[in-house]
Structure formats: C-alpha cells, structure tokens
C-alpha cells in the first residue's frame, strides 16, 4: 500500500506541474510582462570602442547623455539626446492604396481599425513608428518553464551530441533584445525572450558555432533576427491576403533559417510557430503538427530527444556527435 500511495502522489505532482505550466502559457499576451524598466541605451565612445568600432544597435549619446544620437549602424539622428536611446527612424509608411483600407496586421502598426483588405496595401508592420528601447522583464514562471526545457535538451546533447552541445551560443543581452524590439516595432513573446536569454547570443564570427537546429533551421541570434526581419520586409512589404498565409508579414519574428530561403517564424500576435518557404507560402504546422508557442517547440523537441520520437514527420538523430533531423519515413 505504501508503494501504491507513493505512485499516486507522484502522479498528482506531475499532473499539477503540467497544469501550472499550461496555465502559464495560455494567458493573454497583455498579461505576459510583469515588470518594466526604461533604461538608457547610450554607450560612451570609450566603452563601445569609439564610433568607428561601435557595436551595431548601440548608441553614442555623448559625454552627458544628451548627444546627437549617432548609432553603430551608421545612422545619425539629430536631437536624439535625453538618454532615451532610440536607434534609427523607421521608413515613412507608404500611403494606402486606393483599392482598399490599410492593414494593421500586428503590434507594429499605427493602431487603425483592422479590416478585410480589398486590394494591395502596405504592410504597416514593416514600417514601425520610432520608439525608445525598453527592457521588459519576462514573467519569472515563463523563464523557469523555458529553462526547464533547455536543461532537458542540454543534458541529452551532452550525452549524445557533444559537438552540438559545445557549439551552443551563449546568452543574449536583455538590452540587445530591447533594441531589436524597438527597431522591429514588435514585442517578443516572453518564452522566446527567455530562450534567447539562455541561448541567443552571437557566435562572434566563430565558424564552429551556430544556433541550435530546429528541424533543418538553424536558430538565429538577436541581431540575426532583426537583420532577417529587415531583409524580408525589404523583399515583401505589402499586405496581399491573410498575414498567416502569404509568404511574409512584418508581424512575424524570424527565429530560424535553413540557408535556402525558408524560415522558422513566431507570430508576435498569436505566439505560435510557423514556417515560411521560398515558394511563397506560410504554414503554421511545421512537420505537419501545430506548435502553439516557442516553449511548446522546446518541450516537443526535448520529448522527441529523450524518447527517440518525432515532431510530426521530423525525427531528431545523433550522428557524428551532432544533432541532425530527418524525415520520419526516410531510411
């Protein structure tokens, strides 16, 4: 009877933990952020290596913090002082087509009422308003849940794919994420932010380092996310149909790429994970299964690694000390 009682107690504990984790990730986006602190994003020239060697995305505001707003990306904003730290002006939104109303798409638009498009209109999410970077603390419960899944993945990699484990990038900086959010006009979901704060830093040009592979996509660091978002917006900055079915929409956050023009994305509004391909489609069932959040992607990956299972038709395999993904029915 003692053994039976112990088993029942363990089952209750596991169920309670799963229920708590599900409750955390079923909250509305408006409740995600639990603390906010506006921080000065200015970096003195001596700390940043001088204007010539300044890190992209950071700002030299002068000795008194009220400088001219020169940025490491080569942009110059007159009168950007005050220590507010906004980085560069967004492109001026193009006027809406006379064929239909403007589309708001996601969090980076102008706030106009959303309406069904009747013609080609600019993607307002690709032209966010200039704003100051703000460091927002992720919900501690979300951080713990994300770190729990990363620990499972790291343990498996260390035992079965040590090369992939060795090449995992370090943590991103919170202010680097804040700069990217400001420049993209989007708010990263808390679980994505927590994941980047664990393994979202730059490889520093090391050719032997890369982001963790999800399917055939190598995950990107924060600056890679921002630069890829800019590039994709430069290719397609129009709203044609549904932001979740057309090839690209500015409300998406690209988090992985395969080098062939295909990208893994997180919808900044719905927070689920999708895939956009070079043939002009976007799908929110990578591998044939829906993935409702970045945390869910981590959990499903950890489950597949530990059980030898799969995520839809994608199966993780250790080969030569590295993690690879293969289609389930491949030999």
Give a quick precis of the structure.
By secondary structure, the chain is of the alpha+beta class.
Description:
This protein is α+β, with helices and mostly antiparallel strands and 331 residues long. The chain has a domain at 135-327: SMI1/KNR4-like (3-Layer(aba) Sandwich). The protein is built from eight helices and 14 strands. It has a six-stranded antiparallel sheet, with helices on both faces. The protein has a two-stranded antiparallel sheet with strand order 1-5. Strand 9 (252-257) and strand 10 form a beta hairpin. It is globular, with a radius of gyration of 21 Å.
What is the secondary structure topology, with strand pairs?
Layout: H1 2-25, E1 35-37, H2 45-48, E2 59-60, E3 70-71, E4 121-122, E5 135-137, H3 140-160, H4 162-166, H5 174-184, H6 190-199, E6 213-214, E7 217-219, H7 222-235, E8 238-239, E9 252-257, E10 263-267, E11 273-276, E12 282-283, H8 294-307, E13 314-319, E14 322-327
Antiparallel strand pairs: 1-5, 2-3, 4-8, 6-7, 7-9, 9-10, 10-11, 11-12, 13-14
Helix pairs in contact: 3-6, 3-8, 5-7
């Amino acid at each position: 009877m003692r053994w039976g009682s112990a088993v029942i107690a363990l089952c209750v504990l596991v169920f309670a933990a799963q229920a708590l984790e599900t409750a955390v990730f079923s909250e509305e986006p408006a409740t995600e952020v639990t603390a906010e602190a506006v921080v000065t994003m200015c970096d003195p020239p001596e700390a940043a290596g001088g204007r010539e060697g300044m890190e992209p995305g950071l700002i030299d505001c002068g000795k008194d913090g009220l400088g001219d707003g020169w940025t490491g990306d080569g942009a110059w904003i007159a009168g950007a002082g005050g220590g507010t730290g906004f980085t560069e002006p967004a492109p001026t939104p193009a006027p809406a087509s006379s064929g239909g109303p403007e589309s708001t798409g996601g969090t980076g638009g102008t706030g106009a009422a959303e309406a069904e498009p009747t013609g080609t209109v600019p993607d307002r999410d690709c032209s966010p308003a200039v704003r100051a970077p703000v460091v927002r603390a992720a919900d501690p419960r979300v951080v713990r849940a994300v770190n729990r899944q990363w620990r499972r993945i790291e343990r498996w990699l260390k035992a079965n794919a040590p090369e992939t484990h060795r090449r995992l990038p370090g943590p991103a900086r919170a202010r680097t994420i804040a700069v990217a959010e400001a420049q993209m006009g989007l708010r990263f979901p808390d679980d994505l932010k927590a994941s980047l704060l664990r393994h979202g830093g730059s490889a520093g040009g090391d050719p032997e380092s890369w982001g963790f592979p999800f399917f055939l996509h190598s995950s990107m660091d924060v600056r890679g996310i921002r630069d890829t978002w800019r590039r994709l917006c430069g290719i397609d900055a129009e709203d044609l149909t549904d932001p979740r079915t057309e090839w690209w929409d500015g409300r998406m956050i690209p988090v992985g790429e395969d080098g062939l023009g295909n990208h893994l994305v997180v919808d900044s509004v719905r927070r689920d994970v999708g895939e956009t391909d070079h043939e002009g489609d976007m799908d929110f069932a990578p591998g044939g299964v829906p993935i409702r959040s970045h945390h869910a992607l981590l959990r499903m990956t950890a489950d597949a690694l530990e059980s030898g299972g799969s995520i839809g038709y994608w199966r993780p395999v250790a080969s030569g000390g590295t993690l690879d993904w293969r289609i389930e029915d491949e030999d």
